[in-house]
Amino acid sequence: MKRWLTRRWPTPHWPSIRGRGRADVGPLLLTAAVIAAVALLAGAAPALLRAAADDAVRDTVRRAGQDSNVLVHANWERDDGPTGGRVRMPHLADDLGDFRDRATSALGPDLDAALLPPVTAVNGPILTITDGNAPRTFQFTYLAGDLDGPDVTWIAGSPPGPTVSDEYVEVPYGGPPWPVQVGLSEADAAALDLGPGDRIPVKDGQGRDKDVRISGIYRPTDSADPAWRLAAALLRPVPGADGPGTTRFAGLLSRESLPDARLAVDEDQLRRTVHFAPVPDALTWDAAAALAAQVVKLKATSGSSSDRDQSLKWESQLDTALRDARTRNSAASTQAAVLLAGVLTATVLVLLLAANLLARRRTPVLSVARQRGAALPDLGAELIIESTVVSVSAAAVGLALARAAAPGVSWTWAVPVVLAGALAGPAFGTLAAARASRDRRQPANRAARRWIRATGQLRRTAVEAAVLIAAVAAFVTLHQRGLLPVDSDGDSGELTGDLILPISALALGALVGALVLLRLLPLGARFALREALRSRRPLAVFSAAQAATTAGRALPLLVLVSTTALASFALILGATVTRGLTDGAWSTVGADARLDVGADAEAATPALAERIAAAPGVGQVVVAQVTNSARVFSESTLLTPRLVVVDTAAFQRLLATTPLPDAPALARLRAPGPGPGEVPALVRSSDGDLRTGTRLQLPRDGAPAIRLAAVGAAPSVGGATDVVIVDAAALADAGLPAVPNTVWVTGPGAGRAVSNTGVASDVVLRADVLRAQRVAPLTAGLVRLAWTAAAVLLALGLLGLMLAAAAGASQRWQTLTRLRTLGLRPRDARWVAAGELLPPVVVTAVCGPLLGALLARLTLGPLDLWLLTGQAADPTAVLPWWLLGLVSVALLATAAAVVPVESALRRRDRLSEVLRAGE
Amino acid sequence: MSSEPMLSVRGVHRRFRTGPTVVHALNGVSFDVAAGSMVALVGRSGSGKTTLLNVIGGLDRPDAGTVHVDGTDVTALDEDGLSRLRREKVSYVFQSFGLIPVLSAAENVAAPLRMARVAPTERERRVELLLELIGLADHARQRPAELSGGQQQRVAIARALAASPQLLLADEPTGQLDAETGLSVMALLRGIVESEGVTVLVSTHDAVMMALADRVIRIHDGHLDEQAAGQPYAPAPDAR
Per-residue confidence at A508, pLDDT binned at 50, 70, 90? Predict the structure, then answer.
């Protein structure tokens, strides 16, 4: 029979388990409370973050607005007739339906489910209304949903009808303007003072008159119908849409008048587009990757640019928005994981300390049990049963609370805590029982004593070396690989094996720091003892001796330093993100307010800027031409940075008056270029493609490209990572005058000044951006987690301090009592106790926050916080000194309270009992 | 030998309450110990030996009775008075040595002298003498962990003698030592009585150790039962 079959299995003694449990109900409940609290945090945080990830995806898409719409364009079928004219196509609306169906079927089921039913829009060119003095423009538009356009009620006249009833009409090129009937909204009709049967006096960009007739006046059944958003002028006149002081009007086409609209303008002037708007609530983190990939795939099929090609051409920023959201989610998940790893490490250390305390308390009981014949495996089994029941039930309570508080629960993170809770107690307890029952006498042989010491030191050195090697590996991995998944599309949101090492870097770093202090503290204590021995004050000697005696205790110092450093790190992370949001808002907007002028109104930007500058409370006003994804060539490589053409002197002044980083290099842009015919430029890129010395070419239509020479590093503009800045005057001298489309405004009145410009433009206020960023699900979630983690870690640190004091109390008061037998007075004993307790606490209070700051400096970069803060680069760690100071004060205050409390508790013990307990 | 006893214990009672149970650890104990003698206090575990030593040294207060050490009523002293008594007249030696691990043997011995604020030169001289007395002059710089159990107990005895006490109370000083080492420690105590004139009251189980005492006092259930000096130890009938 096999040996293991005949081996006696441990047989737990149940009354002993119950008895020990009853005797130590306090420490066991404390352990259970720690496990439950951390299981609650570790169980709820990932689930909350996951929910925040879904919210963040939706939030990102909502914020992108119409940019996240999926647009499909397609050229019309040519309408050349057999006799050299243009053929009227009476079934054009049906063709449009086919176009929409083709687009819809190309979406695929997943993308289709995430998008609203499409709206097809057909827009004519911008025409000028020739009547009246005020500049007014006109555009006719056809809108169609699943069946027809948005519902309207005709309150006068009739819907637009066909110009002719003939099935086949061919119109010669260059003939008189072809009549087209449109309907006007009540507001448009009233503003134009026109009614059914009237003509709208319009002409196109070439000055050719157009024959646009009003068939009727309509009222929208539901003006909130999303379809109207595609052409707001169909509801009411839109001021500023085509420049300052200009008002745009629009005429509604019908299925019947659409063929006439095509003949009324040039063949390529009527543009058809299918708009698919996303349904944010249908988007989730899980679905985002597949949807983004599908959008990219569709956009990739838009390769053909032939004029005659009727294939679908897709256009959308939805994929970019979804990928950005996923990248931010991945960053937030790993940032949260780093914090959680820190909390779990600290918790495991505190549980070890609690188990150590429990084992000390139980040593006499376990010793008696051994003397009565209990085998170590039996005792171990009894302790494991007890600790497993406590740990598992506490974790279950914590996870149940997490399930109640969060939309889900993640048990993965609770496993290390449960394991530590279940195994630490039995390990320490069994060890204590084994020690209690073996010969405790000091070997008489000096070599044997030296061997025992050397073995212990070797064991400790091996553990320290293992932690150090792991920490170095973690930091190297963190810096080389980063924390973001290599393929964000493949990121499932779950913690994968390759991330465990870099995520542990912070916790391992804290442990290494604590181990270094653990090596240094005894040296310091021994130095203090040597100094004290030279003094004549006995209290100094005994305090220093006590401190030196206990300075080598590993667990208390590891707990104190690790928790304090990690709590400090969490505070620094929270402060850095909070401050980063402010900087990010400055970086995103570039000023207190920014006006992005619509393309149709760009010509009026300088005049607009002058008006804004004259408004009260406005400081700096700077205009610039900002072109996103500008086509710039470096040798033969096409680059698409953000091109900023600006008055660099004004821009420099603006930077100087804001918290944005100054850019003294801007001054170089006003000097001549390094080579003949070269325009100096400042460049910035994320991948190093653009650097000082790079020669660039800015292509122009019908003219030679302008040569740019990079003469320095550009500041970030609007949070872009790839930027080229050139001076407006220098570029104009080179033959390319700027057309400003952006106005940056600073000052307390900036928001008010840009809000009422009367120009079609997007107003971006820094305060709004900051507010939105602060409540953004991921950012708010991470900041909350950072503060919570800091509070939990600080609580664990203080608990660790009390446990450490309690664990050493028996021995401390034993020694103090012995000193009292030598004549030490009771009040002096308290000073000696303080002398023992305070050194590790003082070291922790000073070094813990510094270690936290060092860890923040080493790890914040790879954490990619800028993805959440909106900054252009990794934020610099912000050290909230007063909060870090509070951590130190809390530790010192607790330590200061421990001595009198402990002294008061111990006063009840008779000296004789203390001495007897130590025998 | 002085006519006045160094230690006088009169009618000492000490009760301990453990829940509803009251244990009479000392029940009207009275005895005298002459100065410069070595007295062995024997009895089974729980008989009251340690309680008696603690009451004598002022570590515990009796419920009734008086204890005089060199004429000082220990039971009437306050905490500061007791501290002074321990600094000047009474010293202890414990079973578990109680040395400060980070201090060398010499520094441990010097601890009571520091407490008594003895001048450094005098302190060093006294420590040197004591280490020679206990045969550990060569180990002065070694820390307790570098010493054997017997050597540690010797250092503890030297520390107890450092402040020149008149009464040395030793509670099972050989309890953690093997027989041979224990005997050498007891011999050392005997020698100290002879050479330093210190009065020693030592609790022990060891019959060989008792043979070294001038007098043996047996205690059981809080009562004293004196035995002749140098007689072999005879366990009490109820002793297990």
Answer: very high
**What is the number of other CB atoms lying within 10 angstroms of the CB of residue A412?**
11
For residue A918, the chain B residues in CB contact (below 8 A) are: 96, 98
The answer to whether residue A156 scores a pLDDT higher than 60 is: yes
- CATH code of the domain containing B19: 3.40.50.300
Q: Which two tokens stand for residue A483?
A: 């924390």
Residue B239 lies in a domain: no
**Pick from A211, A877, A234, A796: which is nearest to A579 by CA?**
A877
- Averaged pLDDT score across all residues of chain B: 82
Which residues contact residue A369 at a Cβ distance below 8 angstroms, ignoring those fewer than 6 apart?
Answer: A16, A379, A433
8 Å CB contact of A912 and B51: yes
State how far the Cα of A657 lies from the Cα of A651, in Å rounded to an integer. Answer: 10
Given the structure tokens 């003095």, which residue do they identify?
A: A133
Give the residue numbers spanning the domain of B199: 7-89+165-227
DSSP labels for A443-494?
A: PSSHHHHHHHHHHHHHHHHHHHHHHHHHHHHHHHHHHHH-SS-SSGGG--SS
Total-model pTM: 0.81
Of B201 and B47, which is predicted with more confidence?
B201
- Is A524 an interface residue toward B (CB < 8 Å)? no
Distance from CA of A919 to the nearest CA of B (A): 6
Q: Is residue B32 part of a domain?
A: yes
ipTM value: 0.84
- By residue count, chain B amounts to 240
Q: A496 or B137, which is more confident?
A: B137
Task: Find, among A743, A765, A756, the residue nearest to A607 by Cα.
Answer: A743
Rg (CA), chain B: 18
Question: pLDDT per residue over A205-260, tens digit each?
Answer: 888 899 999 999 999 998 888 888 888 889 988 876 665 567 889 999 998 999 99
Q: Across the interface, do A442 and B88 touch by the CB < 8 Å criterion?
A: no
* Confidence grade of residue A507 (pLDDT, cut at 50, 70, 90): very high
Q: Which residues on chain A are in Cβ contact (under 8 Å) with B117?
A: 536, 538
CA separation for the pair A231, B142 (Å, rounded): 95
| Angstrom distance (rounded) from CA B171 to CA A904 | 27
Q: With an 8 Å Cβ cutoff, is A825 touching chain B?
A: yes
Report the mean per-residue pLDDT for chain A. Answer: 85
Residue A310 in tokens: 């009727």
> Which chain A residue shows the shortest CA-CA distance from B115?
A538
User: Has residue A388 got a pLDDT over 90?
Assistant: yes
B158 closest CA partner among B184, B189, B179: B189
Whether chain B has a CB inside 8 Å of the CB on A446: the answer is yes
Domain count, chain B: 1
Averaged over B37-52, what is the pLDDT? 86
**Above pLDDT 70, what percent of chain A?**
92
**Span A832-865, pLDDT tens digits:** 888 888 999 999 999 999 999 999 999 988 888 8
Q: Decide if A18 touches B, using CB distance below 8 A.
A: no
Distance from C-alpha of A291 to C-alpha of A288, rounded to nearest angstrom: 5
The answer to whether the CB atoms of B91 and A912 lie below 8 A apart is: no
Q: Which residues contact A321 (CB under 8 A, 6 or more apart)?
A: A60, A61, A64, A67, A68
**In a domain? residue B171:** yes
Residue B136 lies in a domain: no
Of A533, A910, A919, the CB nearest to B95: A919
Residue in A44, A159, A158 with CA at minimum distance from that of residue A93: A159
d(CA A10, CA A381): 6
User: pLDDT tens-digit profile of A73-130?
Assistant: 888 888 888 888 888 888 888 888 888 888 898 888 888 888 888 889 999 998 989 8
Q: Which residue has the tokens 């737990």?
A: A12
Nearest CB to A912: which of B54, B117, B163? Answer: B54
**Chain B residue nearest residue A525, CA to CA:** B102
Q: Mean per-residue pLDDT for A6-32?
A: 82
